[in-house]
Design a protein that fits this description.
The protein has 11 helices and 18 strands. It is α+β, with helices and mostly antiparallel strands. The strands form 4 sheets. Strands 10-11-12-7-13-14 form a 6-stranded mixed β-sheet, with helices on both faces. Strands 4, 5, 6, 8 and 9 form a 5-stranded antiparallel β-sheet that branches. It starts with a strand and ends in an 8-residue tail after the last helix.
Length: 336
């Protein structure tokens, strides 16, 4: 989560308000929300007191099961719906009052692309560019070509949109967000419904965009998205942000365990208990426990000195999937 102090700095925090990062200057933050809340008519609380910090230059994975509030949050960020309470800034500009100033620097793809099926990819982008009041008409053709080339669709520029594959349609939508120079790109489930090849194409494009220093906020329910392209993550559960930090901080959150394969699990359990290890679990041929601050080599030595036959010894950390299940109470798709 995050907190703002006098509008000058933002502090990223983990669950229950535990600080996980030093204060970040507002100028170094691409997206910041403060208690952002959305309650729909009928009483449904879709987003509940959201405090989000997206550092500039990051690829921020906005994660959570379907229905956790990700799309509603993105729509509030872009000014498509108004929050019930709270506030937010994009690129250090207050929204929605600063929308006219900041949105030309923000590209987005929300809830799937929408184009004219009978027009070519180039003609669709030209129409989008024509309605942009900030666009230079004299450079339109060159910028459309550059955007198509950026997403690998220049060779298919004259092809009708209805003949595009799903992956090509998603890439064209991203091209639309790149017609003008952008500092922030917001993508809502950009690989949703794509086949493996289309998914790989979109992921590669996101990585390429990020190498130019553009901040990318990408919502997803796919763990592969996180592991392959994201530097930071925020995890949603029923409208609340239950974790925020770097991907490495996410991995470090899990408590390491010691796993011992042995023909004498009873004696091994006794040794681990005598050392002060907790959550000891024994099954046929294996004993595990939370290792805490104990050095793995010291635990192994104690087992050997106690004449415990050790066939294998390991200290694995929980997988990202395990951590997400712990945070959200629900499983995630692990590949895309």
């Amino acid at each position: 989560m995050s907190q703002v102090s006098a509008g000058l700095e933002v502090t990223a925090t983990g669950p229950a308000g535990d600080s996980t990062a030093p204060p970040v200057a507002a100028a170094e933050v691409a997206v910041a929300t403060h208690g952002l809340t959305k309650r729909f008519r009928g009483g449904q609380l879709a987003v509940d007191g959201l405090d989000m910090v997206v550092p500039r230059g990051s690829v921020y994975g906005f994660l959570g099961p379907n229905g956790s509030g990700k799309t509603t949050t993105i729509r509030m960020l872009l000014g498509l719906v108004y929050p019930t309470s709270g506030s937010h800034e994009l690129l250090a500009t207050a929204m929605p009052s600063g929308a006219a100033r900041v949105l030309p620097r923000v590209g987005s793809l929300v809830e799937g692309p929408a184009f004219y099926p009978q027009l070519s990819g180039r003609a669709n982008l030209a129409r989008i560019d024509a309605v942009d009041a900030t666009a230079d008409r004299g450079t339109s053709a060159a910028r459309v070509s550059a955007a198509l080339e950026r997403v690998g669709l220049l060779a298919a520029a004259k092809k009708h949109y209805r003949a595009y594959s799903l992956g090509m349609k998603q890439r064209l939508a991203i091209a639309a967000s790149l017609l003008q120079p952008r500092e922030l790109i917001i993508l809502d489930e950009p690989t949703n419904g794509l086949d493996p090849q289309g998914t790989r194409e979109v992921r590669a494009l996101i990585r390429e965009i990020a190498t130019d220093g553009v901040t990318v906020l990408v919502s997803s329910h796919l763990l592969a998205e996180v592991e392959q392209i994201c530097s930071h993550v925020g995890v949603m559960r029923t409208g609340r942000l239950v974790f925020q930090g770097t991907l490495e901080e996410m991995r470090a959150r899990g408590a390491a365990r010691v796993q011992v394969r042995t023909t004498d699990p009873g004696r091994a359990s006794g040794v681990l208990k005598s050392l002060g290890l907790t959550d000891i679990q024994a099954s046929d041929g294996e004993v595990s426990a939370q290792i805490g601050e104990h050095a793995p080599e010291a635990v192994n030595r104690a087992l050997v000195l106690a004449d415990v036959p050790v066939a294998a010894f390991d200290t694995p950390r929980p997988s990202l999937e395990d951590l997400f299940v712990e945070l959200t109470g629900e499983g995630f798709d692990v590949d895309g």
